[in-house]
Amino acid sequence: MRSLRTPQERDADMKKIAIMTDSNSGITQSQGKELGIHVIPMPFFVNGDTYYEDISMSQKEFYEYLAQGAEVMTSQPSPETLTTQWREILEEQDEIVYIPMSSGLSSSCGTAAMLAYDEEFAGRVFVIDNQRISVTQRQSVLDAIELAKREFDGEQIKEILLREKFESSIYIMVDTLSYLKKGGRITPAAAAIGTMLRIKPVLQIQGEKLDAYAKVKTLKQAKTTMIKAVRRDLEERFFDPDGDNFYMEIAHTANEEEALLFKEELEQEFPGHEIWVDPLSLSVSCHIGPGALAFAISRRVDELIE
Question: Which of 24, 42, 172, 297 could share a disulfide with 246, CB 3.0–4.6 Å?
Fold first, then answer.
């Protein structure tokens, strides 16, 4: 329990905290400005040329390229990009809380953590590897914003988010195996068999790894599988059968119509819950292609600090 202080004492002790993430979170540049945070654009390549989401390529343009059979791949921000922005931010702010995508899925997190050890940034830049990506990463960013408003400093925010880093789940159905094959996630032979059998794999992310969860043949089966998986997690992992203490989100890749239909189903399955719907970032879409549909849950920030 915090001791009561006068407003003057609180203002003197409060640190100015900047929240920062990368575009893998699905937070766009315009949304970042609305939230008052900084979003590092993750570079990706289309036919060998470098692009940045919301800066040099839109979602619509990206999927048009995919429809034409374009070759896509991802990269990471240069160390100079990060350190230059950190220096600019620290001219006006006391500390930076940086939430990149999981180190288990990208080396960009490890690079940032290493840079933060430099004497120039030590104790002022807090890199949080809480094993999140996409909508759960986005939720961590929103949680960090809320914690900063509640006067937690960078070190405390990092401790809280790391303490509960496994309090989330993502289940995602991919419509095609070809992009996973290109990224080396599955073998060409497995991709060929899956395509021939019209298999729609459901993958899971719990912590740092992307793992296979189930194989289904129809979208309806995929939705049912994801709902059952989330219910099992709520009951057996989180001991919260109704999900009262969890945020629920749907994400998709160029699949908004199905995402909105899925939202209606989930509102019936979990009455009283607000279900958010967002597109996945293009840097994530490079690995799974169009037509994907995901269901994610993450523990509410109030639960993180009790």
Answer: 297
pTM for the structure as a whole:
0.86
Strand 95-99 relative to strand 125-127, pairing: parallel
Distance between CA atoms of residues 83 and 245, nearest Å: 37
Q: Return all residues near 234 (Cβ < 8 A) that are at least 6 apart.
A: 240, 241, 242, 243, 246, 297
What pairs with residue 44 in β-bridges? Answer: 51, 74
Residue identified by tokens 């189930």 is 214
SS3 300: coil
Separation of alpha carbons 31 and 211, rounded Å = 30
Report yes or no: 291 and 175 within 8 Å, Cβ to Cβ: yes
Closest CA to 142 of 237, 244, 249: 249
DSSP 13-59: H---EEEEEEGGGS--HHHHHHHT-EEEPPEEEETTEEEEBTTTB-H
**Dist. CA 133–CA 137, nearest whole Å:** 5
Please count the residues of the chain: 306
Amino acid identity of residue 192, one-letter, is A
Could you list the pLDDT tens digit for every one of the 306 residues in the chain? 344 444 444 444 578 999 999 998 999 999 999 999 999 998 999 999 999 988 999 999 999 999 999 999 888 889 999 999 999 999 999 999 999 987 666 778 889 999 999 999 999 999 998 888 888 999 999 999 999 999 999 999 999 999 888 899 999 998 876 666 565 444 444 444 445 446 678 888 876 667 778 888 889 999 999 999 999 999 999 999 999 999 999 999 999 999 999 999 999 999 999 999 999 988 888 888 899 999 999 998 876 676
DSSP one-letter string for 190-223: HHHHHHHTT-EEEEEESSS-EEEEEEESSHHHHH
Look up residue 85 and give its amino acid: Q
